[in-house]
Amino acid sequence: HHLYALNPDGTLKWRYETEGDVHRSPAIGSDGTVYIGSEDGFLYALGPDGIWKWRYQTQGGIWTSPAIGADGTVYFVSEDGHLYAIQGSGPLADSPWPKFQHDNQNTGRVGGGRCAYGGLE
User: Fold this and answer.
1) What is the number of domains present in the chain?
2) What is the DSSP string of 91-102?
């Protein structure tokens, strides 16, 4: 139940323990805040140094990657059947690093601020 951050050379930068499994990629705000959902029902916000900033509890697991809107709002879907919109710390970071099962062009953005997408099965 950990989220890992690696340095460019592949060495461990930091590790953060969650209370449940993490199945998707995090979203990263322009200030470096890392947003990640967990099977434990929490959306976690971590600083770029891996230090806990806050967490938000839902009534179900979070199995999707969060998305960050143009205004910095963090969107995510929980197994409780709700789409959440939480004020984050800024817009999506301009980052070249690869994202799990996505590329830098389509992960974490929310339809130009016009719509949000999420899915539950």
Assistant:
1) 1
2) SB----S-BTTB
Cβ atoms < 10 Å from Cβ of 18: 17
12: which strand partners? 6
Q: What pTM value is reported for the model?
A: 0.74
Contact 16, 52 (CB under 8 A): yes
Query: Which residue shows structure tokens 């389509």?
Result: 106
Query: Within a domain: residue 30?
Result: yes
Half-sphere exposure of 14 (CA within 13 A, CB side): 10
Whichever domain contains 42, its CATH number is 2.40.128.630
Q: What is the pLDDT of residues 61-94, one digit of tens each?
A: 998 899 988 888 898 999 998 888 888 765 555 5
Residue 99 DSSP label: B
For residue 84, tell me if it sits in a domain: yes
